[in-house]
């Protein structure tokens, strides 16, 4: 891939910038995900926000979001769905082993791990981008939990709110009644994740922001590199979306 997009696969090992870890399941089996943590504070606990990448894999863009979340007084944890599965960056392709339900399952496993960490207290939220947003839609669909083994029958969902940026609604359709508050950011000129699939979004738990002049990945600066889909970085819309996200997290994570 061109150097304009920098993969963050060699994750930073300095704790103040981000420590990486691999995870085990409840029964001790190694999970196919790794995480990178960005603690909000050195000496006290805080709520935590998971960050789920799209089909591009973990990028500098996700690390920038992690630092932004960290600056708001929340721990940030980037979830890498790809590296341990041997999946490389791709665009516009939905892999059979990496659909919305697989991502949702990863997010629940990551949340279980977060709850056991000494730097975490309180609630957990998630921000998903593109196909990561598809994972958010599966995560908030309680009808998917048992069927797709996202959550065991008697287990309480460890995540209590979620944000989806330009989600792939054709991969995981939005549930009519989401199980938690969900903020969704839609791009009116999205030629990759068509917003026509993102309906109805009328339940009171949905908070929808639509940016009519925005393209897919409007918050990602790619320099001169042009992807296969229509793309335009928009600093103004990014600032608005960032403010909306901050307000949503403050409302749903602060006790």
Please describe the biggest sheet, giving its number of strands, its sense, and whether it closes into a barrel: 8 strands, mixed
Q: How do the strands line up in the largest sheet?
A: 1-2-4-3-5-6-7-8
Q: Give the N-terminus to C-terminus distance in angstroms.
A: 43 Å
Mean pLDDT: 91
Q: What is the CATH domain class?
A: Alpha Beta
Q: Which structural category do the helix and sheet elements fall into?
A: alpha/beta
Number of strand segments: 8
Given the C-alpha coordinates, what overall shape results? globular
Spatial extent as radius of gyration? 17 Å
The proportion of strand residues reads 15-25%
**Percentage of residues in helical conformation:** 10-25%
CATH topology: Rossmann fold
Structurally, how many domains make up the residues?
Answer: 1
CATH homologous superfamily annotation: Alpha/Beta hydrolase fold, catalytic domain
SSE order, as H and E? EEEHEHEHHEEEH
- CATH A-level architecture: 3-Layer(aba) Sandwich
Low-confidence residue ranges:
1-16
Q: How many DSSP H or I helices?
A: 5
């Amino acid at each position: 891939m061109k150097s304009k997009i920098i993969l963050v696969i060699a994750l930073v090992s300095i704790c103040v910038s981000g420590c990486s870890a691999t995870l085990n399941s409840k029964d001790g089996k190694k999970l196919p995900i790794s995480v990178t943590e960005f603690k909000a504070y050195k000496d006290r606990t805080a709520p935590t926000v998971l960050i789920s990448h799209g089909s591009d894999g973990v990028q500098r863009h996700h690390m920038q979001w992690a630092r932004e979340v960290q600056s708001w007084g929340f721990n940030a944890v980037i979830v890498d769905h790809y590296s341990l599965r041997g999946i490389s960056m791709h665009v516009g392709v939905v892999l059979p082993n990496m659909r919305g339900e697989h991502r949702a399952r990863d997010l629940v496993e990551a949340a279980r791990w977060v709850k056991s960490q000494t730097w975490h207290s309180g609630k957990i939220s998630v921000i998903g981008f593109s196909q990561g947003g598809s994972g958010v839609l599966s995560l908030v669909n309680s009808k998917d939990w048992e069927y797709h083994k996202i959550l065991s029958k008697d287990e309480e969902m460890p995540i209590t709110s979620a944000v989806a940026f330009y989600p792939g609604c054709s991969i995981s359709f939005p549930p009519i009644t989401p199980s938690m508050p969900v903020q969704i950011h839609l791009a009116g000129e999205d030629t990759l994740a068509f917003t026509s699939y993102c309906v109805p979004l009328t339940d009171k738990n949905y908070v929808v922001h639509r940016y009519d002049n925005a393209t897919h990945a409007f918050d990602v600066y790619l320099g001169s590199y042009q992807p296969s889909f229509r793309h335009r970085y928009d600093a103004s819309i990014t600032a608005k979306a960032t403010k909306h996200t901050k307000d949503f997290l403050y409302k749903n994570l602060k006790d």
